[in-house]
Amino acid sequence: MKAVGLYKYLPIEAEESFLDVTLETPKPSGHDILVQVQAISVNPVDTKQRAPKDKVETTPRILGWDAVGIITEIGEEVELFQVGDAVYYAGDVTRQGSYTEFQLVDERLAGPKPKNLSIEEAAAMPLTLITAWEALFDRIRLIPDADAGKSILIINGAGGVGSIATQIAVWAGLEVITTASRDETVNWCKEQGATHIINHREALLPQLKALGFANVDYILCLHNTDAYWDTMQEIIAPEGHICSIVELEKPVTMSLIKDKSVTVSYEFMFTRSKYDTPDKVRQHDILTKAAHLFENGFLKSTWNQTLQPMNAATIKEAHRIIESGKSIGKLVVKGFE
């Protein structure tokens, strides 16, 4: 089978940063399904996994953690799907990824592809959708409808996670404030349903106060936790909750966090698969629930760009775009020649 892989971890401009390779098609066993990949999405985690380091692989490493495709074979323990089913998933960061014609994935990490979405629209969603859903409902522990009317600030609203997190928070009944600065990102955030948009290049608290917010009940930080830490301590409400997907890189003070009895948590969507947690089927449940929300018009895909065909040159271009930091929504790659 055709695939795009790497042996060395290099800057994207390097000739061998990605290579076209041929691999043996794997066979499923246990809870694994074998998926013929139709399209994939490229995420910041892809570029972080490829980031330059001295390690050299003896066999090609295949990246990629977003895909849509058709099941062609199943393992003997599979119960959730059948051959021929269309699925979408983000997979497992510890296994070979989706830059390939056929991929093995645990059925408990996959969901039925939303029937109303194209393959591009569906491929764009799993990783960011699961990240946003887990952050809002598993970490912050929002309760749809019961928490209606409460406020959430989403830092980096135009990114992949921020875009779908905005939609999910609106569906749950929250008043959503996002950050954006360029005209195109402001307009994008409005399209996702944000109630208010503030400029991340300016002090956030004065802008919130001008909108009538003394503080916010929840914060979802999707960019540079270090840079926003002190500001988040200021603007979070007493007994509020801050969730971030970006690790802190240096020590920080937590005096206001303690004083306000604020909860702070992290979200990493690969935790369940990486540590084989007993509740890993939760990701199947999330993707299944979201499929219904897509099909009933409560959510829409954040797909915004497609590159093709699937080969090393195209994957290099996709990584260049993601590393620029200026992409809006999600970038999809499809179609081996």
TrEMBL record:
It comes from the Bacteria. CDD domains: AL_MDR. One of its GO terms (molecular function) is oxidoreductase activity. InterPro entries: ADH-like_N, ADH_Zn_typ-1, ER, GroES-like_sf, NAD(P)-bd_dom_sf, YIM1/Zinc_Alcohol_DH_Fams. SMART domains: PKS_ER. It holds the Pfam family ADH_zinc_N_2. Residues 16-333 form the Enoyl reductase (ER) domain. Belongs to the zinc-containing alcohol dehydrogenase family. Quinone oxidoreductase subfamily. This is Zinc-type alcohol dehydrogenase-like protein.
